[in-house]
Amino acid sequence: MRVIGIVGSPRKNGNTNTVVQQILEGAAEAGAETSTFLLNEMNYRGCQACDYCKSHEKCKLEDDLAELFDEIAKADGIVFGSPIYFGQFSGQMRLFLDRCYSLINRDFSPRLPAGKKAVVVGAQGIPDPTAFKGVYGEFEGQISQFAGMDVKDTLVAAGYHAPGEVKDNAELMLKAKNTGLNLFK
Ligand SMILES: Cc1cc2nc3c(=O)[nH]c(=O)nc-3n(C[C@H](O)[C@H](O)[C@H](O)COP(=O)(O)O)c2cc1C
């Protein structure tokens, strides 16, 4: 099994990546091969709406997302993590999501084989974990509808600001580890 993390926070040691890494550790303990893609360290542009991908199998832009799309195709599980910025996922994650247009057909049906396992991770300053329920729910709906993924769980690090302070939340850390351990069960 192959599990990848896609992280939309610019902070490598931030709360989002802390939770994502914990899930990947659990998955690795269960025998998966894991790797992480930090969107902020990759060079890519937003979707150019050129429609090339509707008459070809792939995106016309040959930037760092080309490799990531290959990895998504090969992965059995994908952990999507992003902080909340102004009530939305980060710009890094939004740009990536628009580029996922190349993963769907003209009629919005998925090109990826159905059934990849997905986990959504959010980090936010507001302590109420339900404050951005709509944002997480919409994202879950998009990846299940457009990418045919089976969203196993959504984990929210709520009420954290300083990088990595979510580590103090033993309950969430344990939940994240178990999410990884049980991803394919
Ligand atoms: C530009 C920016 C905008 C933010 N907007 C929000 C927001 O709308 N709501 C919120 O709860 N937290 C907001 N935050 C706080 C982050 O979501 C929070 O610090 C989170 O833990 C950061 O995740 P990270 O450590 O993975 O980078 C914002 C932070 C930044 C830098």
What features would you describe in this structure?
The chain is 35% helix and 22% strand. The protein has 185 residues and is α/β, with parallel strands linked by helices. It has one domain (2-181): Rossmann fold (3-Layer(aba) Sandwich). Strands 1, 2, 3, 4, 5 and 6 form a six-stranded mixed β-sheet that branches. Helix 1 crosses helix 6. The structure holds flavin mononucleotide. Flavin mononucleotide binds at residues 9, 11, 14-16, 83-87, 123-126, 160-161, 163.
What is the helix tally? 6
Q: Please give the radius of gyration in angstroms.
A: 16 Å
Reported CATH architecture: 3-Layer(aba) Sandwich
Outline the low-pLDDT stretches. none
Question: CATH superfamily, called what?
Answer: Flavodoxin domain
Quaternary form:
single chain
Helix content: 25-40%
Series of secondary-structure elements, N-terminal to C-terminal: EHEHHEEHEHEH
The third-level CATH topology is Rossmann fold
* Count of the domains: 1
Major sheet summary line? 6 strands, mixed
Report the structural category. alpha/beta
Amino- and carboxy-terminal Cα gap: 12 Å
Strand content: 15-25%
| DSSP, total strands | 6
- Under CATH at level 1, the class stands as Alpha Beta
Shape: globular
Q: What is the average of the pLDDT values?
A: 97
Ligand species: flavin mononucleotide
